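User: For my dataset I need records formatted as: sequence, then structure tokens, nothing else. Please produce one.
Assistant:
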Amino acid sequence: MKKRIISLGTFLLLAGSLLAQIPFAYTVKGELSDSAFHGKEIAIICGDDRREMAKTVVNGCNFEFSGAEDSVRYCYVWAGREYGEFILEPGTIWLDMKTHRFPTGTSLNEALGEYNRLQDRAYAITDSIYRSVIHEGMSREERIEALSTHTFEGERIHYRMYKPFILKHTNDEVGAVAVENLLMLGATPEMLDDLYPHLGEWILSRPYIQTSIAFVEASRNMAPGKPFIDFEAEDLQGKKIHFSDFVGKGKYVLVDFAASWCGPCREEMANLKEVYEAYEGENFDILTVAVENDSEASRKMFHDCGVNWNTMLNAGEVPAKLYGFRGIPRIMLFAPDGTIVANKLRGDDVWVELRKLNLKENNRTYMH
């Protein structure tokens, strides 16, 4: 594993240089779609730590912030349903509160708008590729067959499109925003290995970048063929149990990491209920792990979703840190010996992966 460590000396020099920066003057202006916020106070929020950096009162539909700061930062302004993201830097910045993502007026904000347009193009391309294979009105069987013969590499498409932009912004705040979005999107360790040597001290010093890099590094533990990592949680009665009580016991196990507050997790459980009815037997099982610390909410979720397979409660953030995933639902398939077969399954992908195993299906009445 390649180390992602900034030496103490380098960190102290970097921290000192940031603190020693000369304050700069800024003005941030914007216009809301109506006067509903007239006379109300709004604030500039720092993207790093969510602190309020400045406040102002809306006049009619317009607002203006003026002040001084000592460090460039990614920020945003909220006004009800309208918001604008921007880079706080020297000069006058104009916010786009309607489309949110295209500030103008200064060099880094023009670059942020360029990046957001690049993002839109990348999503349009990946969506077009997916829709060229999966059509509305397809049955599940048709979708499974189509997915079985096509490989979607959305993350790789995004990476290929974003990398040239990042290489032009290897040591500034807009580059940090682009890198963070890439890491959150699902960058692989191989992508990180390729990009890391080009990143400057400014980007590597950002706390949220350091956190994201740690998750990507941990995601190496999710690679197919890797052994499972054990952790402790609780059963429905509050008794301590272990991941190893369920995985590596001679069955294929579909592990669903979920939480009660996650709407898509509940949708996936409806899918898993059909999977369980189709494949449950001596060679297959399902385990749902509640990655939160609210046993009552988890129990209610299990009840509401009709979960009748194995569960673990109060696992908290431990599994996410061990396996390096930041979004849920996260569904992983483990082989009978406890090694990982697949690590990023959703919806029809679950059925596609299970079909590869040639497991005996209990019935076919669940197909629709």
